[in-house]
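--- STAGE predict ---
source: upstream dedup step, 1 unique chain passed
mode: sequence only
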Amino acid sequence: MTAAQPVTERPRHLSVVQPDDRAGFGDLRAELHARCADEDLAALWSDLTIPERKAVLASARMEPEDATRSLELMCQHDRNAIRAAIGRMSRYAARLRGRLEDARHPSHALAANARRALSDGDTRAAMHWLDLIERGGK
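--- STAGE serialize ---
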């Protein structure tokens, strides 16, 4: 007869992310878990209107009919394509925003010409530049 082996219990792995006090590491870990589960994408997808979803789907080279589908019903490949399309569109929008912030309005140049004409004492030319500004800088 053999002697009974002592049973040692192993600590069970917790699938739920536990909070910790390591400089926000727990929060970062929870965010990464949520991202892997596409929770961030699902929240964004639910906030988009149908036309916005169709634009994202067109960028992802998917069918426009998928705009009414829930993200949870889509396969991982489709969710990855949607995430990539949103990333591309976001980067494009950021570049456009940067260009618009850097670009000066055409009326700035017209106003500079009007100021120069006023400093030269040429009121007729200043009125010409101000008239162009009032008409919309065309």
